Known about the structure:
By secondary structure, the chain is an alpha+beta fold. It is built from 6 helices and 9 strands; from the N terminus they run αββββαβββαααββα. It has helices at about 5-10, 60-75, 135-150, 165-175, 180-190, 225, and strands at about 15-25, 30-40, 45-50, 50-55, 80-85, 95-105, 120, 195-205, 205-215. Strands 1, 2, 3, 4, 5, 6 and 7 form a 7-stranded mixed sheet that branches. It has a two-stranded antiparallel sheet with strand order 8-9. The mean pLDDT is about 90.
Amino acid sequence: MDKNFWETIKNLRIAVAAVDVAVFSIIDNELNVFLIPIDRPPHYTNLSGLPGGLILADETAEEAAKRLLNDKMSIKKANLMQLYTFSNPDRDRRSRSISIAYLILISSNSVNIKESLGKWTPVHKLPKLAYDHDQIIEVALDRIKAKFAYTNIASLLLPKKFSLTELQKVYEIILAKDFDKRNFRKRILASGMIEATGTQIEIYHRPATLYSFKNPNIITIPEIKSALA
């Protein structure tokens, strides 16, 4: 055999398959991502990162993501959205790995995550992260903003019943933009995305109608874009 062939075989690094999950929620009027401690000397010491791990031989990437979410965040049910495949040869200093990243949005009152497992961190105050998790979060944020413009994905960040004030606040937090209250409400209602529930709550000593999303699934609603103009 050619000498170069054997040199290639000698230096070959076989890639392992992994998953990483970026979990976001709105807490204290800020978009947060859940980070877990990562301490794997000598390459990664006292750092933070996204929940993740290797895909086992008998499971799919989605099954691995669900298993790791249960193990590392005690989340048993989640609306997983595949984000991107990260395959930079240098993404993990320990070995050659390819990560299939997933994205999850959850309402802060829908799941109780033990603080001992990790912590919620505002996306604009991220510490130094392990691997390429800063890049994964950046891609995830771009995807979230894009989906807000043409789907009802905001439903994942809200309770089942919510006020128009709460809905507008979610859009303003995600898109980093203030909306005119009257215009936003008029166009959101015209989109047909939400409907009144027939119940009210008191906000600032005034009654406020509660709404819910008509469709429990994430669907495309082209009319939303005009409400965000």
